[in-house]
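Onboarding guide, step 5: your first structure request.
Type a short instruction followed by the sequence, for example:

Predict the 3D structure of this protein.
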Amino acid sequence: MAEVRLGKTEIVVNKSGFGALPIQRVTQEEAEKLLLRAYEGGMRFFDTARHYTDSEKKMGNAFKGMREKVYIATKTAGGGA
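The system replies with structure tokens like these:
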């Protein structure tokens, strides 16, 4: 997979990321399988949001003990400054 740098950071990830919206519709077990399969396939950037119901929780559980190996971006409805 092609890699890109995130903005001006030193973070380099695959050009394709995993959008977590669909994992809100599956069980924790199924979500973990999907997320870990994506990781095993080389995916390191995962995107989620508070509005994706329980996807943040499912993602946290899936990557427990390996959090330093993935990048997780989450969106909020905070409305910027």
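Each response can be followed by summary notes, for example: Residues 28-40 form the longest helix (13 residues).
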